[in-house]
Specification:
7 helices, 38% helix, Aminopeptidase, globular, 208 residues, alpha+beta, seven-stranded mixed β-sheet
Length: 208
């Protein structure tokens, strides 16, 4: 499927948040064994029920308000999916701009503290590079090539600029998808979330 890719405009943030709610809720609900979901998927799906969809929406809108002015949030004309990139000069994140965008404790449970902590990233990422912060495609448009189309503009730009691209994914399905787009796993990370539970991240890189 061929998709026109455009930059997200400020007026489209609310609709884009709807798309992300749909995309990530679907990912959680489609698990064959919900009790085996990773803790983050459980939390994001439960947040809608426990805290209400408006607070969940505020989380995504805050994310988009922060990144949209950087001009590397990509979508389609009908906002079927969203890709958010952190450009080479966009990291580490500015904590004050995060707060201004609406990332604040108590309502927005996805505050990107990990992205504010430079130790979160492997030392190899301290070079100039692009970072894929998130990619979500609405459930009605998944497996139609839209995800690949959304990340293609920056993959091509990074290649022209001789810069690597990095990302983290939490699922083996994600690993397979990104490998099909030229990424390779450089590290598997098990992060403790409780005394007896960990969540796994795959750190991936695409060479220019």
């Amino acid at each position: 499927m061929s998709s026109e890719i455009i930059r997200l405009e400020k007026a489209q943030i609310s609709q884009a948040a709807d798309t992300l709610i749909n995309a990530f809720r679907t990912e959680a609900e489609n698990q064959e064994q919900p009790q085996e979901q990773d803790w983050l998927s459980q939390f994001l799906s439960q947040e809608i029920v426990v805290f209400g969809e408006e607070n969940y929406r505020e989380t995504w809108e805050a994310c988009l308000r922060y990144f949209q002015p950087l001009r590397h949030v990509y979508t389609t004309p009908n906002i079927q999916g969203v890709a958010v990139w952190i450009p080479p000069l966009g990291y580490p994140l500015d904590i004050w701009r995060c707060l201004e965008a609406g990332y604040y404790s108590g309502l927005n449970y996805s505050f990107p503290f990990s992205l504010l902590n430079t130790n979160y990233y492997d030392t190899s990422m301290k070079q100039a590079c692009w970072r894929l912060y998130l990619l979500g495609v609405s459930k009605d448009y998944q497996r139609q090539g839209i995800g690949s189309a959304l990340i293609k503009p920056i993959l091509e730009r990074a290649s022209c600029d001789d810069l690597p691209c990095y990302l983290f994914t939490q699922t083996e399905e994600g690993v397979n998808f990104y490998e099909s787009n030229g990424f390779e796993v450089i590290k598997k990370i098990d992060i403790p979330v409780t005394l007896d539970k960990t969540t796994t991240y795959w750190h991936m890189k695409k060479e220019p």
